[in-house]
């Protein structure tokens, strides 16, 4: 398919896919602080207010599959490497949950991918343990030390081939430089009524509200 399978001796590159990397689940409202004789729950705001130096906290961690987002030149010398989490396509693209027919799924993968810049589609591949269609979620990133990741290259299950990685690189760039806006802002009241049939939870702008 769209994957290559580098030897463990090859350097880390953008588009490398790793399994079992740690994603930290940190709550700012409930922090388990490790003190000299005990552990106490507090908030991150209190931690910052009462500590000037290093602190120890306990946080939950879960292993995830992720893809290297850092560019090749930085992946060879930067202290840290940034990756984006990979999950099942139907989880990342919410419209995929209700898509059952192959035709509708193909439409999501091809046409809708040009509209939604928040994910990158990855097809199944047994060698990478992708038994289902997957997607890169650009909204979820993790950062790991480069030297530590280099020692874990046995967890690299594959990488995007040249064509796929060129597309991946452009999608990352488009995502982080995209201009966020609410697409309904130029609609008049009549148009907005039609739009709200599918999007009932939007907030109208002042010029779209009925005048008294």
Give short descriptive properties of this protein.
alpha+beta, single chain, 25% helix, 7-stranded antiparallel sheet
What helical percentage do the residues reach?
10-25%
Distance between the termini: 60 Å
Structural class: alpha+beta
Query: Helix tally?
Result: 7
Rg from Cα:
22 Å
Which percent band covers the strand fraction?
25-35%
Q: Averaging pLDDT over every residue, what do you get?
A: 90
- What series of H and E elements makes up the topology? EEEEHEEHEHHEEHEHH
Q: Major sheet: size, sense and barrel closure?
A: 7 strands, antiparallel
Strand order of the largest sheet: 1-10-2-6-7-9-8
Q: Count the E strands.
A: 10
Q: List low-confidence stretches.
A: none
Shape: globular
In terms of topology, how is this protein built?
Elements (H helix, E strand, L loop, with lengths): L2 E2 L11 E9 L6 E4 L4 E4 L1 H7 L6 E2 L2 E8 L3 H4 L4 E9 H4 L9 H9 L8 E4 L11 E12 H5 L5 E5 L1 H16 L11 H7 L17
Antiparallel strand pairs: 1-10, 2-6, 2-10, 3-4, 3-5, 6-7, 7-9, 8-9
Please, could you describe this protein's structure?
With 212 residues, the chain is α+β, with helices and mostly antiparallel strands. Helices cover 25% and strands 28% of the residues. The chain is built from seven helices and ten strands. It has helices at residues 44-50, 72-75, 89-92, 102-110, 146-150, 162-177, 189-195, and strands at 3-4, 16-24, 31-34, 39-42, 57-58, 61-68, 80-88, 119-122, 134-145, 156-160. The strands form two sheets. The protein has a seven-stranded antiparallel beta sheet. A three-stranded antiparallel beta sheet has the order 4-3-5. It is globular and about 60 Å long.
């Amino acid at each position: 398919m769209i994957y290559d399978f580098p030897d463990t001796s090859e350097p880390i590159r953008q588009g490398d896919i790793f399994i079992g990397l740690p994603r930290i689940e940190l709550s700012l409202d409930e922090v388990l602080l490790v003190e000299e004789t005990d552990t106490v729950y507090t908030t991150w705001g209190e931690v910052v207010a009462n500590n000037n130096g290093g602190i120890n906290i306990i946080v939950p961690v879960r292993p995830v599959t992720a893809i290297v987002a850092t560019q090749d030149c930085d992946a060879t010398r930067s202290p840290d490497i940034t990756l984006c989490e990979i999950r099942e396509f139907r989880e990342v693209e919410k419209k995929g949950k209700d898509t059952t027919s192959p035709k509708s799924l193909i439409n999501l993968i091809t046409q809708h991918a040009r509209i939604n810049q928040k994910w990158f589609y990855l097809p199944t591949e047994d060698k990478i343990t992708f038994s289902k269609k997957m997607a890169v979620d650009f909204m979820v990133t993790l950062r790991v030390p480069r030297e530590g990741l280099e020692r874990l290259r046995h967890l690299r299950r594959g990488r995007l081939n040249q064509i796929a990685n060129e597309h991946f690189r452009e999608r990352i760039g488009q995502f982080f430089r995209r201009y966020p806006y609410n697409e309904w802002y130029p609609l008049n009241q009549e148009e907005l009524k039609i739009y709200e049939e599918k999007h009932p939870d939007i907030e109208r702008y002042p010029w779209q509200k009925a005048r008294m």
